[in-house]
Design goal:
mainly alpha; 4 helices; elongated; Metal_Tscrpt_repr
Length: about 110
């Protein structure tokens, strides 16, 4: 494989500098993920301080929901941009993008 092919394989085949569907909302996603990171640190603190189990579980549930909302947003963006563009173009890439999206959704449902 050439260096260009290596780079494409490493980034999921999008190519260096390729536009990804969530770019218009990137700052929003980063803000939400930073908040989730803070929630995870808070959970660690709660365990260190031996907080009540139900209080910890409540925070775990809130953190899980926040991550699921990020995931659902990313799936929506992927379908609206990456998959829709590939389907409009047609060919084997369209089939691959649809399969890739289906597999990602299946992983989310199983978790």
């Amino acid at each position: 494989m050439t260096t260009t092919e290596d780079a494409a394989a490493d980034d999921g085949g999008h190519g260096a500098g390729a536009h990804v569907g969530y770019m218009q909302r990137k700052d929003d996603y980063l803000r939400r993920l930073r908040r989730i990171e803070g929630q995870a640190r808070g959970l660690q603190r709660m365990v260190e301080e031996e907080a009540y189990c139900i209080d910890i579980l409540t925070q775990v549930s809130a953190t899980t929901r926040a991550l699921q909302n990020v995931a659902l947003g990313l799936v929506e963006e992927h379908l609206a941009h990456c998959v829709a563009d590939a389907v409009a173009t047609g060919g084997p890439e369209a089939d691959a993008k649809v399969r890739e999206a289906s597999e990602a959704i299946a992983r989310l449902v199983r978790s």
